[in-house]
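Morning. Coffee machine broken again, so started the prediction first thing and wrote up yesterday's gels while waiting. Chain of 110 residues, entered below exactly as on the submission form.
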Amino acid sequence: LSVQMDGLRAEGSLLSQVTESLNEGVIALDASGQVVRMNRTARQMLGVHDALPFSADRLPDDVALRTAIARALDGASTDELETEVFSRTVKLTAIPLRDGGAAVALFDLT
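Came back before lunch.
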């Protein structure tokens, strides 16, 4: 059990390092709509500083972002949708995750 726990910690650390190194914003939500992972780039783009996990309701009140998240949580993808958040033009993609939840990628076009 100890070896398995060490392996899970190492995997979590690697995932965190990879997502933090990206120039794109990354948000992961669980099936109940809680934001469980959000990289620094996404936090800067969206102006979010809440500790994880937190409700997706705490994300900016942008119709395109909220709709894409809701669709992904319902099993549908949204590809390369442009929206404006805090005077930044952002391209977003949202996909459902196999075991429930959703992943959102944000690219700042500004």
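The helical segments are 2-21, 40-46, 63-73. Going to sketch it on the whiteboard this afternoon.
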